[in-house]
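Sequence and structure are no longer studied apart. To make this concrete, we show below a single chain and its fold as tokens.
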Amino acid sequence: MANPVRVTVWNEFRHEQKDEKIGATYPNGIHGAIAEGLNAIDGIEATTATLDEPEHGLTEEVVAGTDVFVWWGHMAHGDVDDAIVDRVHKRILGGAGLIVLHSGHYSKIFRRLMGTTCSLKWREADERERLWVVAPGHPIVEGIGPYIELDQEEMYGEHFDIPEPDNLIFVSWFQGGEVFRSGAVYYRGAGKVFYFRPGHETYTTYFNEEIRKVIGNAARWAAPVSREMPVYGNSDPIEDLSWYDRKHAITEGFGPTT
């Protein structure tokens, strides 16, 4: 039996504690709802970590033992310690996956991996969102129909200041008329990154079975590949280069000329 995909669901966990309505919507926190959905999927083991835990719950041991990070943040991006971001960044470049959700587009880890502002337009007006699948052969949308429809969500609109995705998986339409690149895939180092737009804290989005399915699919897709990591720096040849030593000697005026 294959080893399970080890997922760490990270959430700043501030809204749920400060706003009674949001706390009632997500009584176990947004991270709890996401982890619940992931743990219902065979082959995935999800745990959680939050901002106010020591080292934000992302100790060296936790990070080293994580195959895929799921990241939700909104009101406290600046409170995330740069040393912890460095730790997670190194792990992703080394092969781990990262799923960035909703307002996590402004997180330090996502902006570092993208190299852009990751800015966008937004509006809270209880609008219907329709997420159209534009890469039907991608494993992230396995078992998903032509689109996912959410009755109420926050609007995100273009222009979204991200690099051109390596694969675009979803494009959203909103009731107010906007469109948005709502599912984008990137490869960074040996790691894989998926940005997935839905999940405003005042809505029950993370209890939606299709949204949970996409996150689960993404976790399996983003898991590390079983192979040796590349070795960088000065490298010995794998073929005979003795001819190069003779050529060098001739060029410098040493050795025989024939």
Q: What stands out?
A: The chain has one domain: 5-251. The chain has a mean pLDDT of 94.
